[in-house]
Amino acid sequence: MYIPKANEETRLPVLQAMMRAHPLAAVVTMGAGGLIASHIPLVCEDAEGAEFGVLKGHVSRANSQWRDLAEGVDALVIFAGAQHYISAGWYPGKAEDGKEVPTWNYVTVHAYGPLRVVEDAAWMLAHLTSLTDTHEASSEVPWKVGDAPAEFIATMMKGIVGFELPIRRLEGKWKVSQNRSERDRLAVADALEGIGSPESLRMKELVGRGE
User: Fold this and answer.
1) What total of structural domains would you count in the chain?
2) What Å distances lie between residue 39 and 58, 119, 207, CA to CA?
3) In Å, what is the CA distance from 210 to each residue of 63, 66, 150, 172, 176?
4) What secondary structure letter does DSSP report for 86?
5) Most buried in the list 8, 17, 28, 142, measured by CB within 10 Å?
């Protein structure tokens, strides 16, 4: 990924926090048929011997991606975070000399590593429990894997395949107006606040912090 120095994020806690906050990722692999991608909710876990952590997920057994993995080629996992269009009209310079163009601000993390297929039932149950507990935590009455009959869960697990990816390389790009002057950043932040959507307010926070 092309990352200008001003947009580079290397702090591991920040990168892992972003992956956990935006767990639906594009998992891209190379196989005999070329590149293939699946959009999968992932769990990012710390693990001994894995400096950047381990990603765990699962796919439908009917998904051919897990059967078609080129040996020795790392997978690429793309996490997309906050993003928003930035209008050229928001910059004060537009009214002064017109020399402005629009852009798009965004936050993304790319993780690379070998993808290992897992078909162990105990591993799968632990993974599904972790994934479910994480995303049910904010519910008033959280659903748990144990709420369903064990036989039903066992049958459902036969239709999926697990995988884990120890992260070998991690890249973070925070393109949030760091290359602009303070005057421009304040103008962008004001415009984003005026829109008032969850997406614009999140980007306003990032632009305002100058991350």
Assistant:
1) 1
2) 10, 20, 28
3) 41, 40, 50, 15, 7
4) E
5) 28
In a domain, 203, yes or no: no
Q: Which residues contact 38 (CB under 8 A, 6 or more apart)?
A: 26, 27, 59, 63, 65
Any residues with CB less than 8 A from the CB of 151 and at least 6 apart, and which?
none
The mean pLDDT values, 10 residues at a time, for the chain of 211 residues are 96 96 97 95 89 95 95 96 97 90 98 96 96 95 95 96 96 96 95 97 89 60
| CA–CA gap between residue 23 and residue 58 (Å, rounded) | 13
Q: Please report the pLDDT score of residue 94 as a whole number.
A: 84
Domain that holds residue 122: 5-87+105-178
**What's the pLDDT score for residue 210?**
60
